[in-house]
Amino acid sequence: MNKFFIAFAAIASSGILAYSYLREWIAIKWLGEVPELIPEHPLSPYFHGSIGLYQRVLVIFGIYFFLVFLGSVYFTWRKKWGFVMLLFVASMLGILGIMINGAIK
User: Fold this and answer.
1) pLDDT value of position 1
2) Whose CA is closest to 72, among 21, 3, 1, 23?
3) Which residues cross the membrane (predicted)?
4) Is 46 strand, coil or helix?
5) 55 near 29, Cβ under 8 Å?
6) pLDDT tens-digit profile of 69-97?
7) Residue 91 CA to chain centroid, in angstroms?
């Protein structure tokens, strides 16, 4: 594949997810927003049980994707395409982790 597309996919996927997770965590933690969690619903994931647990999941995934984003930008700038590919795979595995984490009831 073209190196540009792998670098773009690694940066975009990890950057968007890092932004969304960290933005929601900051909104709950410091801006006073209250998430609408429905812990008693049978299809809700386990981390909807409490706001503290929900925040912990948000910050863990946010930091993970932020580190992948920083690494992707750095190694793209340094033209280390092997590391960029590795970070793209790490981003995709992180998305798989999000899906598995959300499926745990």
Assistant:
1) 61
2) 3
3) 53-76, 83-104
4) helix
5) yes
6) 999 999 999 999 999 999 999 999 999 99
7) 8
Sign for the CA dihedral angle at 103, 43, 15, 36 comes to negative
| pTM for the full predicted model | 0.90
Which of 47, 69, 70, 67 lies closest to 58, judged by CA? 47
Which residue is listed with tokens 């033209």? 79
Helix, strand or coil, per DSSP, at residue 33: coil
- Tokens at 95, concatenated: 């998305």
Q: In Å, what is the CA distance from 73 to each residue of 6, 70, 86?
A: 12, 5, 13
Which tokens is 40 given? 């008693």
The tokens describing 26, both together, are: 């900051």
Convert 3-29 to b/e letters by CB count within 10 Å (16 or more is b).
eeebbebbbebbbebbeebbebbeebe
